[in-house]
Amino acid sequence: MLLTSTGTSYKTETKQNFDTNAKMKAVFVYNFTRYIAWPEEYKQGNFVIGLLGETSITEELNKVAATKKAVNQTIEVKKFGSMSDLSECHILYVSSNNSGDLAAALQKTKGRSTLVITERDGLAAKGAGISFKVVANRQKFEISKGNIETRKMTVGAALLSLAIVVD
What we know:
Layout: H1 22-35, E1 36-37, E2 47-52, H2 58-67, E3 69-70, E4 73-80, E5 91-94, H3 102-108, E6 115-118, E7 130-135, E8 138-143, H4 145-150, E9 154-155, H5 157-162, E10 164-165
Parallel strand pairs: 2-4, 2-5, 5-6, 6-7, 8-10
Antiparallel strand pairs: 1-9, 3-4, 7-8
């Protein structure tokens, strides 16, 4: 059977915007836990991935958390509906709808070794550690080594070689 495109686009939507790259982003987030090193005091207890706002990767990250570990730590996914709900986490994933809260999120996590990841491109240059972006229909990510190292984490060379480095 041969299917041809007539130029019509069909889009499935739920309450939140459907993101066809959600599974891939969740895998990227998990792999970031393998190629970024947190300080020793962050290597105990659960490895917390915080989600600020509604995002399509929630379900996929929960699947990862059910089957994988961040080195030897159990992964825990926490949803934060607003900045006032934000608590300590290893990774803070800022949804595209909450991109305007980036400065407040950076301020609230200041002094902590929290990797801030955004769904909107260009925000690694504005303080985030990593920002997702699509280039030539492929999921990519920008990384700010300086922003990550300021928070006392180190980035592996293998991760840098895959990233679009912004500093």
